[in-house]
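thought: fold this chain, then report.
action: predict
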Amino acid sequence: MIITTTPSIEGHKIEQYLGVVFGEVVAGVDFIRDFAAGLSNFFGGRSGAYEEELIRARESAIREMEDRARMLGANAVVGVDIDYEVLGSNNGMLMVTASGTAVRYV
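observation:
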């Protein structure tokens, strides 16, 4: 399945728009990762633990969006947008949302 941020698929014609599809993932960030990220921030450098969590959450949200598009009979998702939010009273949760338009192209 083609997944793209563009509104069209180069060299192909979109024959049917099937609707907006979403994939949402809410992930908790545990104490060990918070501690490791704090040390990384204190001593400088990048926080590998947070980066890995972001990558996993984003890939899961895209996969969920793709699955929902496939259930509608789509063979592509166009206009994909990915949003990140922190949730919870102590900002201990990460929400990643992937959205786009499910289409059939020829």
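thought: worth noting. The first helix runs from residue 31 to 43.
final: tokens above.
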